[in-house]
Amino acid sequence: MDQSVSGGPTNTSSHQPYAARGARCLGEGEVIMRTAVLLLLMGIVDLSISQRYSQFQWLSHLRGRRRHAGWQAADVDCPLECDCPSAYPTAMYCHSRHLQHVPYVPSHIKYVYLQRNQITGIQDGVFDNATSLIWVVLFHNQLNSDKIGKNVFSKLKNLDRLLLDHNELTRVPPNLPKGIADLRLGHNKISKILSNSFEGMANLTTLHLQANDLEDVGGLFKGLKSLTMLDMRKNKLSKIPDNLPGRLQQLYLEFNNIESVPADFLKMYPKLQFVRLAHNKLTDKGLPSRVFNISTLVELDLSFNKLERIPVISRNLENLYLQANKIKEFSLGSFCSTADMTNFSKLKMLRLDANQISAKDIPAEAAYCLRQVAFIDV
Fold it and tell me: Smallest Cα–Cα separation from 221: which of 256, 254, 247?
């Protein structure tokens, strides 16, 4: 008789696979749950670590896990939003990354490039881990003076170059390191500079302040004993700054409102070689007699002013720009007191175009006096 009909003992062997499968499913479920808990705990640990850093800096922590994968040690400490090429182990390149903050800077970095981003502020302590920094490049950002900490740069004792041009600064950042040699603050909105802003900067050789809103700086630069180049183009100056450093070689003052040059100006600064005063409001009345007759001067730019006469210059001057004035005559005595074979000018470039004279106004004797001139534009 068929046991399935008679109600006899049923063969349960056919049900055993289902029971075993159920036991395995329970085991797998327990493993999955344990794994999920473990991953959650790992996530909590990582999140707790991330709280020590900023929005992106915590990513740098993850790079530490790459050691077992054979990554170079130089790459491990580099923020993921930047590049630290092994060919330049002390440089960190973070430019043009749309960054809104300064990322974590490892302690071995000496050169950090952060230009062309969207950084608006820098909090105190950002660079405290990287006190060996030599260059900090931050031009073309959106830095606001109210969002820069008072001691952001104060611990960078080795800082040599600080580039902050093309930002939204209204003040010179306070407590700058005294050892800076190259400071660039051009193309900002600075209207006033505190008297102690550059105090003690004995190594400062280059200072860029062009394209700001400065009207008067007083004797601000007097103590800058090493300064050789001062750029103050495109400000609102009504006079040449007072008490300039004695070692100054290059002075750029174009696009201001300067009307005169002090008597004996160049005698006070005997090392000046390049003076640019184009696009001001200079007149003959504002130029004392022979004020530019100084032997050290190499280049003089007086273009785009209101001069009616060629000023007397030194025979050692090599480049003279007088275009776009109101000059009515070519006075050979401005270049040579006498015209002979031994008394001649070293002038190589002379621009007189856009004035009220022409080539026919240049006397024949000019061939002796201006024998080294390669180009005269009238």
Answer: 247
Closest CA to 240 of 205, 272, 199: 272
- The values of phi and psi at residue 322, to 5°, are -130, 15
Q: Please give the pLDDT value at position 338.
A: 75
Phi first, then psi: what are they for 44, rounded to 5°?
-65, -40
pLDDT tens, 50-88? 333 444 444 444 444 333 333 444 456 899 999 999 999
Q: What is the pTM of this model?
A: 0.81
What is the tens place of the pLDDT at every residue in 315-362? 999 999 999 999 999 999 999 987 666 789 999 999 999 999 999 999
- Alpha helices by DSSP H, listed for 198-332, are 265-268
Res 252 pLDDT > 80: yes
Rounded Cα–Cα distance for residues 8 and 367 (Å): 137
Rounded CA-CA distance 266/294 in Å is: 7
E-strand ranges in 61-198 read 91-93, 111-113, 135-137, 161-163, 182-184
Query: Cα-flanking dihedrals φ and ψ of residue 16, to 5°?
Result: -60, -40
Tens-digit pLDDT profile for residues 200-212: 999 999 999 999 9
Residue 107: both structure tokens together: 């302690």
> How far is 259 from 123, CA to CA, in rounded Å?
42
**Residue 206, token pair as written in the block:** 């280059």
End-to-end CA distance of the chain: 131
- % helix, strand, coil for the chain, step of 5: 20, 10, 65
- Distance separating alpha carbons of residues 197 and 207, to the nearest angstrom: 12
Query: Distance of CA 370 to CAs 277, 338, 339, 346, Å?
Result: 23, 12, 9, 7
Distance from C-alpha of 112 to C-alpha of 134, rounded to nearest angstrom: 8
Segment holding 376, helix H or strand E: strand 375-377
pLDDT, tens digit (0-9, with 9 covering 90-100), for 111-125:
999 999 999 999 999
Closest CA to 327 of 364, 356, 292, 354: 356
